[in-house]
Amino acid sequence: MSRYLLLFLLNLPFILAAILSTVTQYKLKKISSRRLVIQVLIGVVALIGLALAQPIYVWLFNNKLTDTEPLSLFDVVQITAIVIVFYIANRTRIKYLALETKLQELHSEVSIKLSNEVTHKK
Amino acid sequence: MIKKVQRVCVIIPAYNESAVIRDVLKNAKKIFSASPYDIAIVLVNDSSKDNTANIALKEKVTVINHIINTGAGGATATGLRYAKNNHFDIAATMDADGQHDPNDVIKGIRQIEKLGSDLLLGSRLIDSSGMSKIKVIGNKGLSVITYVLFGVNSTDSQSGLRLFSRKAIDSLRWHAGGYEFASEMLWKARQLKLTVNEYPIKAIYTEYSKSKGQNNWNAINIVKSMIKHRISETFG
Fold it and tell me: Which is the most buried residue in A48, A96, B122, B144, by most CB within 10 A?
């Protein structure tokens, strides 16, 4: 199997999962249309970049814009690992922000309830 | 027809303000009691290390004690949540260091009734006489940055005197805990398509309020946090 095809197939699920997650968030009205467009655009650009990695490399090489070696198996593993790390980091950040918001709300609510109890006891 | 008396919740976020809080509350109570509105003062004690909460309790105002220190944004959010839970018609915020004249709150309530605004900002910069040049530059700079980052036009984006309609009390939420909440709030209001207006207020600068207030170095931290929130909102 071509290494470029392997690169594309290994990364495809993560990019599709990210796009799907963004669309779901939009449909659930958790993000704005502007954010949807930006995030989907990033996913689509990454997807096009991976799908056209070979022709892009050939074009750059032929036009003497790069003199790097063609894609090795190690490069495939490394690029896939970078995409996975980005995916996990973004998911973690989203969950962290949601948790932070919930914690703030909980803190506000508990502070109000405790203050009410103190006032009523007095 | 008998006009309904507006129930107003005046939120005062406070952190280590024991030196002035008694005078601030006494003055506010005196002015609010003479007004035609039903005004309740709520002091949100942001986990002060001094006697702020006890002094406020002695002044017989509602005190909400934060368990941990969250910053001005967090304390204001708690106050607004209290106003929502208790079904107030209007909420207002004013600083605890005595830089705001309670008469400006009354003026704001009249303005919000007249204009039908959802968020009304008391701007110190429409008439900035009495304000030091360095503060004018710092605040104008932050308003410009707020416009660049969030597309919200305001003469005084950092003003602590703000009034909220019932709609704003119910819907307005922000993420920032620190002082950058002031700009984020304007941005969220714009996203929610709330009506935002301004009216002129006079800030009272004493040696105490000057020492407690934001200096231009703090503005750098505010700008950093604003950029962080802007990027996070775009790509998050």
Answer: B122
Amino acid at the residue B195: T
Verify whether the Cβ–Cβ distance B77 to A108 is below 8 Å: yes
List all residues 6 or more positions away from B51 whose beta carbon is below 8 Å from its beta carbon.
B18
List chain B residues with pLDDT less than 50. none
Quote the minimal CA–CA distance from A26 to chain B in Å: 12
At B62 the three-state DSSP class reads strand
Q: What total number of domains does chain A contain?
A: 1
Three-class DSSP category at B202: coil
- Residue holding tokens 């790390």? A85
CA distances from B101 to A84, B41, B67, B226 (A): 55, 14, 29, 28
pLDDT under 50 in chain A at which residues? Answer: none
Q: Which domain holds residue A31?
A: 3-121
Question: Encoding tokens for residue B232?
Answer: 């996070």
Name which of A34, A39, A109 is nearest B81 (Cβ-Cβ).
Answer: A109
DSSP B99-155: -B-HHHHHHHHHHHHHH--SEEEEESSSS-TTS-HHHHHHHHHHHHHHHHHH----S
* Interface A:B, Cβ pairs < 8 A: 56
Alpha carbons within 13 A on the beta-carbon side of B207: 1
Q: Quote the pTM value.
A: 0.81
Please check whether residue A82 touches B, CB under 8 A: no
The complex's ipTM? 0.79
Contacts of B236 in chain A (CB under 8 A): 31, 35, 93-94, 97
- Residue B183 token pair: 């700009």
Locate the domains of chain B by residue range.
7-235
Neighbours of A34 (CB within 10 A): 11
